[in-house]
Amino acid sequence: MAQPESEDDKQASVVAVKPPDRPGRPKRAKKKPKPKAAKPEQGDDAKLRPSAAIVPPQSVAGRALTLVVAIMSFLACLTVGAVSIVWDAADAWQNDLVREITIQIRPTEGVDMLREIDKAVALVQEFPGIGSVRALSDAETKSLLEPWLGEGLELEGLPVPRLIQISVGDPALLDLQQLRTSVSQQVTGASVDDHSIWTSRLSAMAGAVVAGGVAIMILVLGSMVLSVVFATQSAMAGNKDVVSVLHFVGAEDGFIAREFQRHFLLLGLKGGVSGGVAAILCFVIVDLLTRQASGQAGSDQLSALFGSVSVSLPGYLGVLAVVFLVAILTALTSGLAVKAHLAKVD
Predict the structure, then answer these.
(1) Distance between CA atoms of 2 and 17, rounded to whole angstroms?
(2) H helix or E strand, kind and range, residue 66
């Protein structure tokens, strides 16, 4: 008769009939805890991506506008240099004319010309403010007339006036009206020429040159302003979505305008400096060529008319002023154009 199984035997049989693990069935891997995301520290600005400028720093329109600004700056600087040369020459002419007076003695029948010349020289030397008095010799008078009458002149057979050159030491001390009256009364056939007509003409010419230079600069800078306006509108059209989003989310017009002003200020500086440097190089080259060509007929006539064809220090300072003006004008124009566009959007 079989005996009943005990509790230990039952547990052993359960363990024995437990099916083994199926071959090829992977065991489930234990789930690893997910790492906790690091919390950003308070006060740190979390950036999703690097910020980009509203206006692209490099674009085809920007390069083209830089070239236009450089050309306009070059023309404006050339105008400043030309005006400076003519102004300095006119000022030198006026100073020479103011400090020089000429007495002309016309030949008269029965009057000894040499005696009248000596009388005029002695009379002029008595006036205060006179530097030196010198009567031109026959050879100097012939050299003055040879370009018009040819060589081989005989002054004795021609009614040629004789000239006395007076150098004024101090124009403030000289009473020119009294000198003119005394010479005309005491010297037969004499007249005083203070070159006032030539001085007034030179002043008018210098003023006309300056006015023309200012007009040319206004036209050049006006053309540059129009180019900047069109370039600003093109830049805003290319960044229309960005500008619109910034505008409608509450960005102030001044903020958007400053972005464009910063971009066009750098652009204006590049173009202005390029044009100014090119103009300065032209001034230096012209000065060197003029010095090398000294002694030739054309160069001597040019030097006699304008002196040394070189730009003085005020001319170079004017070039720097033009470069600064171009940069500031470019930035202001772009800022005003942006504000005008945003005002239309509102």
Answers:
(1) 22
(2) helix 60-98
Provide the phi-psi class of 256: left if phi over 0, else alpha when psi is between -120 and 50, else beta: alpha
Residues 102/164, Cβ–Cβ less than 8 Å: yes
Q: Are 141 and 163 in contact (CB under 8 A)?
A: yes
Alpha helices in 126-195 (DSSP H): 138-149, 176-186
From the list 66, 52, 79, the residue with the least C-alpha distance to 330 is 66
* C-alpha to C-alpha distance for 145 and 301, rounded to whole angstroms: 18
Q: Does the model's pTM come out above 0.85?
A: no
pLDDT digits (tens, 9 = 90+) for 98-151: 788 888 888 888 888 888 888 888 888 888 888 888 888 878 887 877 777 777
Cα–chain center distance at 35? 64
The runs of H, that is alpha helices, within the chain are 7-16, 60-98, 113-125, 138-149, 176-186, 196-238, 240-248, 253-292, 297-306, 313-345
Query: Residue 27 carries which DSSP code?
Result: P
Structure-derived torsion over alpha carbons of residues 11, 16, 22, 23, reported in degrees to the nearest 10: 140
Going from the C-alpha of 245 to that of each of 49, 123, 250, the distances in angstroms are: 18, 89, 9
Q: Distance between CA atoms of 35 and 240, rounded to whole angstroms?
A: 43
CA distance linking residue 66 with residue 193, whole number of Å? 55
Q: Is 234:61 a contact under the CB 8 Å cutoff? A: yes
CA distance 114 to 116: 5
Strand, helix or coil for residue 101: strand
